[in-house]
Amino acid sequence: MSVDAYRRDGILARALVNFVFFTGGFASVEGTVHQPRTFSVEQLVDIFNMKHVNTHPCRLNFSQLPEFNRAEFVRVMKVEKNGMDSLVQQLKTVLREKFKDSNECELDLDNDQYLKSMLEWSFTRITRFRELTEPQMMFLWMQPSLEQLQNTVNPNQKDSLHELVINISKLQDYNEESLKALISDITKKRDVKYNHFMKTLRLCLSGLKVGPGVIELMTVLGKDCVLRRLKRSLQLGENEVLQQKAR
């Protein structure tokens, strides 16, 4: 592969340089290969050790490259001045390319704050930007499809979902603790099985049967998005009931 191919694949320049440097054996920094971190070119020059250079053949362990890339994501995000802004712009480019031929993206791609929150949430889960547009992550940008939502809302859970929507709308402090308490109260009051209700919420919000924790998912998507998707699921459920009655 060419360097340009790695760039198109989402590998950051500093990550690639450090990967070649350390897995190629040009120096030894304790723990760097097993727990990758990235150094500047100036730092690499300082730690370069000629004693580690030899004529023996070397096979690079490419399974380490994604971890070097993840380490560089974290460094840019936390250390570089304006690093997060740079990552947000790169993510915008990836998303615009992904959705250039469709209107399926629910997100306003000029909403830098939302993109920033997505990066902060996902940086421990991804090693390159394109992973954020793979099927298991598409819930971040798209509503569940009609097919995914078919028969999602159990009639016995409909009133509980309605109550949840009303109460989320009133929440002043929208966070994990308040959401957990709210859902727990509603399921107990309406005698709805908590685990079953959470599975329904996951499907309504992401279309996934497995994935991030439901409370975490609700926090990541944000109040407005959660309300919009729950209302849509309820409306689709009501339409299904009407269609069944009309048959």
Question: How would you describe what is shown here?
Answer:
The protein is mostly helical and 247 residues long. It folds into three domains: 3-67, no CATH class; 81-140; 146-246, Orthogonal Bundle (Arc Repressor Mutant, subunit A), CATH 1.10.10. The protein has twelve helices and no strands. The protein has helices at 3-8, 13-23, 41-47, 65-78, 83-98, 112-122, 146-149, 158-170, 176-189, 194-206, 214-221, 223-246. Helix 8 packs antiparallel against helix 9 (176-189). The longest helix is centred in the last third of the chain and has 24 residues, at 223-246. It is elongated, with a radius of gyration of 23 Å. The termini are far apart. The mean pLDDT is 85.
In brief:
The chain is an all-alpha fold.
Please report the first level of CATH classification, the CATH class of the largest domain: Mainly Alpha
Number of domains: 3
CATH architecture identity of the largest domain = Orthogonal Bundle
| Largest β-sheet summary | none
CATH topology heading of the largest domain: Arc Repressor Mutant, subunit A
With helices defined by DSSP (H or I, 4 residues minimum), what is the helix count?
Answer: 12
The helix content is 55-70%
Low-confidence stretches: none
Task: Give the termini distance in whole angstroms.
Answer: 59 Å
Q: Helices and strands, in N-to-C order? A: HHHHHHHHHHHH
Radius of gyration: 23 Å
The chain-level structural class is mainly alpha
Overall outline: elongated
Give the total of beta strands.
Answer: 0
